[in-house]
UniProtKB/TrEMBL annotation:
Sequence similarity: Belongs to the GTP-binding SRP family. SRP54 subfamily.
A Gene Ontology molecular function term of the record: GTP binding
Domain AAA+ ATPase: 98-246
Organism: Pseudodesulfovibrio cashew
Protein name as annotated: Signal recognition particle protein
Span of the entire protein shown here: 1 to 295 of 516
Keywords: Cytoplasm, GTP-binding, Hydrolase, Nucleotide-binding, Ribonucleoprotein, RNA-binding, Signal recognition particle
Enzyme class: hydrolase
Subunit-level organization: Part of the signal recognition particle protein translocation system, which is composed of SRP and FtsY.
Binding sites annotated in the UniProt record for GTP: 106-113, 189-193, 247-250
Catalytic function, reaction form: GTP + H2O = GDP + phosphate + H(+)
Amino acid sequence: MFESLQDRLGNAFQKFKGQKQLTEDNVKEGLREVRLALLEADVNFKVVKQFVDQVKERALGEEVMKGLDPSQQIVKVVNDELVELLGGEQQGVDVKARPLKLMMVGLQGSGKTTSSGKLALYLRKNHGKKPYLVPADVYRPAAIDQLTTLARQLDVPVYPSTTDMNPVDICKDALVKAEEQGCDLVLFDTAGRLHIDEKLMDELENIKKECSPQEILFVADAMTGQDAVTVAEAFNEKLDISGVVLTKMDGDARGGAALSIKSVTGKSVKFVGVGEKLSELELFHPDRIASRILG
Ligand code: GDP
């Protein structure tokens, strides 16, 4: 995760070693490297520009921080700005609601079904929630089977969806069934297509309208970089998502999606998937990630 960015930024900061102070010239030169490092990490170019301008302004405007040499100062400014870029404060989900209704949306293959299982496990383990899983993708029988298998592995109830049912009806009825079974966390695993599709978006909007989920989590494959950001924008426009689950971070050495998605969509990454196993889900901590990037 972020390995290449870490290396490149390390090189950029080398330029400040041995300098007496931050000047227009050395900041400009050092930031040229930072800019290239971010572009190489597949960060959205507008985001990169904004980021570099912001760092420059702060680095040159800042009172000399006592006890920090110029290279430490620039690292501190970049660190603070990276935390902001990654979303600032850590954002989880508010678990108080009963039932807590989470709607998972995203393209096919992004990791929705796996993330539904992971969140069920995470919220049961950490918050004592009683999950109920709802397969709402009736277009692919394999999707229903996959979630049903995960439910069995986790030993949690699952709605008996079939391919001849209507997804909106499934979700509405699932709320009744979940309550009957004493469950206080309902996870709707909705359908995804290979591309954004109006009919599907309308269906998702209807599920949202009928079931009023507290959270609509957009699931994105981190390895798809800027494509993930573009798709997030489209889902956000239609559904007003509440946050993002970024999957396959274990395979993403660049980090472009993680670094751009908040800035472009205004919505934070809440969780990251870091492996195929159900336990491999983590809260997304902007400050820890920034520290990791800066080594
Ligand atoms: P869906 O079509 O959106 O429901 O996607 P799936 O949940 O079926 O996931 C697609 C593939 O990605 C499966 O092979 C998952 O095991 C894999 N996957 C999901 N999340 C992660 C992750 O965080 N890391 C890795 N390495 N693989 C993941």
